[in-house]
Amino acid sequence: VDSDTTKRGQAFPTGCSLNHVAAHYTPNYGDKTVLQENDVCKIDFGVHIDGYLIDSAFTIAFNPRYDPLLEAVKAATNEGIKTAGIDVTLREVGENIQEVMESYEVELDGKIFPVKAIQNLCGHSIEQYRIHAGKSVPIVKGGPETRMEEGEQYAIETFGSTGKGKIWEDMECSHYMKEFNAPHAGLRLPMAKKLLYEINNNFSTLAFCRRWLDDIGLENHILGLRELVKTGIVREHPPLVDVKGCYVAQYEHTLMLKPTGKEVFSVGDDY
């Protein structure tokens, strides 16, 4: 879809997280990272019309040695989609996802690695202009007994890792998002005021990246952005990483629970 400020376009920056980086990486201007033959790259993308969005992801690996890792995560996502439904508990979805994913293992350089579901990443409910709408869909056992309800929209996303199976924030931040219920705060810097005006007009409460700010003429935005983060108006979302040297794969689809079944919006012929 063609970009038209907040009416339609990309729903968030396209993630292209590599190897041990699970999510929330997209390059800032000046980043010289080059995709390599032995990389595992997660493509996490979204589009929207009037804030109604699709959130989807797949993984690219050129070396076939990673195929079992990709197969594990794809199968786990498909199991989550299969399990999801009206009155199904989020606990049940997470248990089924983990059971499928962790039945796989990967051989890398003569060593066997079990595929681990990343315990502190999850899918999420979606509402208009709100990509994380309040309900989390776990990908491990022990989730809440909260039930899915008719009319809800969910991103079923799973992450499998050859590392610890747990992520934390690291690296330079590129992803930002205005809080859905942002506080009213006095801003000291003129750039922060200008930045907030442009964020409201161009992104609303959808995520954006620093490249997009540069592209609309806000090259010297970093101090203003820091003030918006400090006041709680904008939240930063740094890259999420597992231990260096491991590999993470991701697959994700968006679905809606309808009275007579569920519709998966993002499934195509390729994945």
Helix content: 10-25%
Element pattern in H and E: EEEEEHHEEEEEEEEHEHHEEEE
Note the overall shape: globular
Secondary structure tally, helices: 5
Q: Quick one: how many beta strands? A: 18
Q: Please state the CA-atom Rg, rounded to the nearest Å.
A: 19 Å
Low-pLDDT sequence parts: none
Walk me through what this model shows.
The protein is built from five helices and 18 strands. It has 271 residues and is an alpha+beta fold. Strands 8, 9, 10, 11, 17 and 18 form a six-stranded antiparallel sheet that branches. Strands 1, 2, 4 and 5 form a four-stranded antiparallel sheet that branches. Strands 3-16-12 form a three-stranded antiparallel sheet, with no helix packed on it. The longest helix has 17 residues. The mean pLDDT is 96.
Condensed summary:
With 271 residues, the protein is of the alpha+beta class. The protein contains five helices and 18 strands.
Key terms:
271 residues, globular, 32% strand, alpha+beta, 5 helices, six-stranded antiparallel sheet, four-stranded antiparallel sheet, single chain
Question: How would the blueprint of this fold be written?
Answer:
Elements: E1 8-10, E2 15-18, E3 21-23, E4 40-49, E5 52-61, H1 67-83, H2 90-101, E6 105-108, E7 111-114, E8 116-117, E9 122-126, E10 136-138, E11 153-161, E12 168-169, E13 175-178, H3 190-202, E14 207-209, H4 210-215, H5 222-230, E15 234-237, E16 240-241, E17 248-258, E18 261-264
Antiparallel strand pairs: 1-4, 2-4, 3-16, 4-5, 6-7, 8-11, 9-10, 9-11, 11-17, 12-16, 13-14, 13-15, 17-18
